[in-house]
Amino acid sequence: MNTVASNAKPDFVVNFQRPANTEIKHISGHWYLYERTSKYDPKIKRSRKVSGRCLGKITESGLVPSRNKTAEILRASLPSYHLNDVVEVGAVNYFYQRTAKMRDRLKSFFPDNWQMIFTVVLLRTIYDARFRRLEVHYENSILSYLYPDMVFTPPAVKNFLTELGHQRDSISSYMKESLNQMGDRFVLFDGHRLLSASKTMENAEVGYDSKCRYKPQINVIYLYTLGENTGFPAYYKQYIGSTPDISAYTDILKESGLNGNGNVVTVVTDKGFASSESFEILEDSGLKYIEPLKRGNQYVSGKVPSSPSDYDDLFNYHNRAVQSKKISSENGVDIYLLFDTQLFEDEISDLASRTEKHNNTVEASRSREAKRRSNNKGRLTDEQLAELAPLTVKDVLADKQEMGTITIKTNRTDLNGEQIYAIWKQRQNIEQYFKTYDDTLDYESSYMRDNSSEEAWLFLNHLSCTIGISAIEEINSIGQSKDISLKDLIQTLRKISACRIDEKWTIPPVKRSVQTLGNKLGVDLVHLVIPLQETTKSTSNP
Question: What is the mean pLDDT of residues 513-526?
Fold first, then answer.
């Protein structure tokens, strides 16, 4: 049986409201609704359409579902609402104008469901991270006119997440394209633990993270890139919760295909990632690196200057004095020892606090033992009592010669100690990113039940965070970072609505302060600049 293409569709087919991720086929004189998915094809380097099962026959009376489970799910997911004449438009206006490149790339790698992906990303960025609230936010947003006929019932959302999660090739290719098309830049590397509330998630394992949470979690490794004037999350991969960051380091470098492409790409890590294997992979890939080494390493042992005058350079970084000394330079690799006075003060203060606490505990224990012995009820032997001795300054500082120091290994021999330190301190960008990820956008915990839906959840989070970080940088660029947060911006713009009267859209006047903010951000808050599709058609069940 062959599929026949026909240009003369009857009215009942033309007017049929086709759900997302489906297609209509003309077979032997009849019209049928089929599942439609996409799969990445490495030969053409993009996704191609893949037809699925038949969901039913389209007739003048509507859809006659096939007798199978998929058709029942579809039937339950068909839209049953009418478009709202008063919708939110401010936040959508702002983000839509700034995501043209994202939409183009989504069209390229996800040709069959890019509109659904983009709509979900904006809804979760602007309104709520929870999937169960997508439908109500969609109905009250201009997105329902921009991309009509989206279905957000639980079965439809579940199918969408499952399908998207199976497209890791397309997800990876989407991220690689931007990662390898930039010019000279620095790439920050770090891991982030995300909690999982699911008992069926294979990658979730009970672990202990930096936040002292002993709960089921997955480990997400991120590459965060810094360009000349911008920074954004570039590539991620999820790992089993018990996977150490250092073990995933070499794997994600290989998978991401990170390379110079004629440009200078420098990988910047945190302490603990340096190993002979990682250095070898970076150099074989033509990558530069700036990696701090653990204290007590072979390069620094016995070479820490005993006085400030023994350092090569002194400079100021954000009102903190830093000294640097190149302690080794061979085979195209430099080793820098940096002494941070602020770091030293913090560490010496912490050491003093812990020493005082220890000595107070020792003194209290000795006093209690003395009191017990006066009543012939001593519990400690003389040897044990002798061991309860307070720490002296000499004891405390005996093995702390490297206090306040940072050792950095790099093959960027064109940079000096001050430049190396300033670049390494930019790691605060990825820390800020994880803060935005967890707190601002509320992606700290997942309720996905399997690895594929978790993959979809992570990719949607990734896109939302890309949008959010871009907005934060724009706020910084107009000098409003102290007064306006990302949440403030979104909440302010969400108050701007549009009203449709006589098939024409109008936006009520906004406050002068909001208009001023819009002018600074280059956002037109008076006119609807989104290119809407036909807005007179009401979506309802066929």
Answer: 82
